[in-house]
Amino acid sequence: MGRIYQRIGKRGKRTWYADYTYQGRRYRKKIGPSKKLAELALADIELRIMRGELNLSMTEVKLNDFLKEFDEFSKVNHAQSSYVRYKNIFANFEQFLEMRNQSMNLSQLTPKLFEEYKVWRRTTPLNKGIIAKSNTVNMELKTLRTLMNYAIKWEYLKVNPTRGVNKLKVNDARMPRFLTKDEIKLLLDNCGEELYPIFFLLLNTGMRLGELKYLTWNDIEIEQRRIKIQAKEYWSPKTGERVIPMSESVQKLFVELRGKRVGKNDFIFEGKNGGPLTLKLRERLKTISKRCGYPDVTKIHTLRHTFASHMIMQGIDLPTVQKLLGHSDVKTTMIYSHLATDHLSDAMNKLSYK
Question: Is the separation of the CB atoms in 250 and 204 below 8 Å?
Fold first, then answer.
């Protein structure tokens, strides 16, 4: 026997579904806002099952085959960093299924399975014996939800099996590390001539590393003091195109870089064979930071956190910082909101009429 059930969307929209089992597999079919139509649709499905006349249009696809197909798609259509992130998360999910000795079709994925995956990630040590933090699990769930949306787009699924699977409450997340003004000066004083313009730009524009690596002279309008983060034939920005205004110091740096430009090289920071930057910046940053006395700075993304943090502490509002960083949702920018409160408190503490 099947059943019908109702879901209420974010805007209060009510939708009825038919839920039934066919040949040992569970299916859900979206009907619409009418309960009566849902009852009739389920009755029709059950009658066709009984008569052996049910013909499901969806192509049955094994999960492993779909992941391989998506891997090829992602390799071509996503930035390298996104491709690697997808690959690592899918590897975790496949390991979860292997430990359960499960090999399944896409249509057999259920919300309960993803709920169990959340528990597994929060209780099972994987890489280097580390148990995933709640924030990490939420990010992985978001990625898996995106994956299932592609399955729907490619007509392998009708309903996203992660729908209704809620994020974990985050109470174990650390605030992002950022450099103080003294630490910034130490870094720039010790990074050397080759790395100075790279670190300087990351600290003074908030660009992502990928955006800086693929930055070309066609993206730079020195006189207008604008940096255009825009798509190329071989690369696309993570959250769409945007314009970053230049400060006077950034404009001065680009004037100097333009003066050193050799021939018609396209990339601001050219790598091997005229391609984008290939320096192992993270390893270089870790070495310099350790030498400067703050070995906890191990990620290039810390420079982006530093830009955002100092903008907030200077009193710049969150929506403006969101636009400068290229965050698609202001909730992402909210991780810096505590700095505004702390900074305002410090300002009030300095007030004295004595």
Answer: yes
Place of tokens 């070309």: 216
| 232-262 burial: b if 16+ Cβ within 10 Å, else e | eeeebbeeeeeebebeeebbebbeebeeeee
Give CA–CA dist 354/343, Å, rounded.
22
Number of domains in the chain: 3
**Which of 146, 133, 137 shows the shortest CA–CA distance to 92?**
137
Contact 334, 317 (CB under 8 A): no
Q: What is the pTM of this model?
A: 0.62
Neighbours of 175 (CB within 10 A): 11
Provide the 8-state DSSP code for 63.
H
| 73-117 per-position pLDDT tens digit | 888 888 777 888 899 999 999 999 888 766 778 888 889 999 999
Range with the poorest average pLDDT among 93-107, 239-253, 276-290 = 93-107
CB count within 10 Å of CB 180 equals 12
Do 133 and 194 belong together in one domain?
no
SS3 232: strand
Helix (H, G, I), strand (E, B) or coil at 199: helix
For residue 103, what is the domain's CATH number? 1.10.150.130
Alpha helices in 102-247 (DSSP H): 111-123, 134-153, 181-190, 192-205, 209-213
User: Taking the CA of residue 275 as centre, how many other CA atoms within 13 Å lie in the half-sphere pointing to its CB?
Assistant: 6
Helix, strand or coil, per DSSP, at residue 14: strand
Query: Domain range for residue 45?
Result: 3-51
Mean pLDDT over residues 275-293, rounded? Answer: 92
Cα dihedral angle (35, 38, 42, 48), rounded to 10 degrees? 140
